[in-house]
Amino acid sequence: MYYALEGHNTKAVDMMIWANARQSEEFRVAKENVGDVEVSTVFLGIDHNWGDGPPLLFETMVFGGPLDQEQERYSTWAEAEIGHKNMVER
Question: Which residues contact 16 (CB under 8 A, 6 or more apart)?
């Protein structure tokens, strides 16, 4: 359920390691402004699939505009980068 980053790779860890990693890791995959709209993609560190399929550890979210609060989640850093670009294009 808890994950840490090793470079752009993820690994399952216990809660104490996860909590310590939250203080030192860089979590932003990408951030871009399109006019007044912000698109942000980050590493969450907790599986948001809750054990039902592959872990969803990254999230893109839109702040502002017609897609405000739109979100997508991904399993890997590479998927998150692609998803971020796709959301910016939308």
Answer: none
